[in-house]
Amino acid sequence: MSDTAKKDYTLSSVKNALRILRRFSMDEPELKITDLAKDLELGKSTVSRLMSTLASEGFVEKNPENQRYRLGLSILSLASVCTSNFEIHKEAMPVLNDLVEKTGETSHLSILDGLDVIYLHKVESKHHVRAFTHIGKRNPSYATSSGKILLAYNDVHFVDKIIENGLEPFTEYTITDPQKLKETLDEIRQSGYAVSSEEIFEGVVSIASPVRDYTGNVIASVNIVGPIQRLNQHTIPSHIKKVIDAGKQISARLGYRGYY
């Protein structure tokens, strides 16, 4: 094998190993080699070899009870390093805690990852009835308040990419018409907040506002989410101001001075 071929082979193996790691999620924390091979369109022997390598370095481990693989402690170690050094994560924590205290609802800090929105941080509501979410959970950006905030302040070509990828309906309230989505994003830019009422899960409502870095670019969103019994036409107006204020506070802590 030539040096060039060896290099290409190594790069391909690294890419496939990373694809395998990204396949794990809170919804599917344990996976079989056959499932990974099928989902990623790789040979079973290739996946088995890569899993052995990942296991030897502690990035995955096998559950002896069902022979499925799960993420290992090496992933947790890297995640801790990443989280502790995320400036936005550190600056947002006290604001999210305060927002939950004021609204009584669960709050998230979210960013875009590919075409989806992903929860970077979460502070749980103290209510017994809560929306089921978790850090690292991915949702389609066009169907959530956090995602719509990030789309509204993004490049128009990125929004077109979202539309080209398809606007799948999750409930009867999901926006699936491209023109309506664009009009909604225009309204969000003008108002400075977004509301998602049962657009992704029935009975769940969320409110979000933008978070800016020191240059003024929107890099994240902050939201509250809860059941429609608590977040409705009577309570949403007062909560909107609290969510907007939270976004401004985090932005200010990141060095943005445009609000004050």
Write structural notes for this entry.
This protein has 260 residues and is of the alpha+beta class. Helices cover 46% and strands 19% of the residues. It has nine helices and nine strands. Strands 6-5-4-9-8-7 form a six-stranded antiparallel beta sheet, sandwiched between helices. A hairpin with a 6-residue loop joins strand 7 and strand 8. The longest helix has 21 residues, at 3-23. The radius of gyration is 21 Å and the shape is globular.
Task: List the defining traits of the structure above.
9 helices; alpha+beta; single chain; 260 residues; disordered N terminus; 19% strand
Please give a quick description of this structure.
This protein is an alpha+beta fold and 260 residues long.
The average pLDDT score comes to: 88
Biggest beta sheet summary? 6 strands, antiparallel
Q: Write down the secondary-structure element order.
A: HEHHEEHHEEEHHHEEEH
Low-pLDDT residue spans: 3-9
The proportion of strand residues reads: 15-25%
How would you describe the shape? globular
End-to-end separation in angstroms reads 62 Å
Radius of gyration: 21 Å
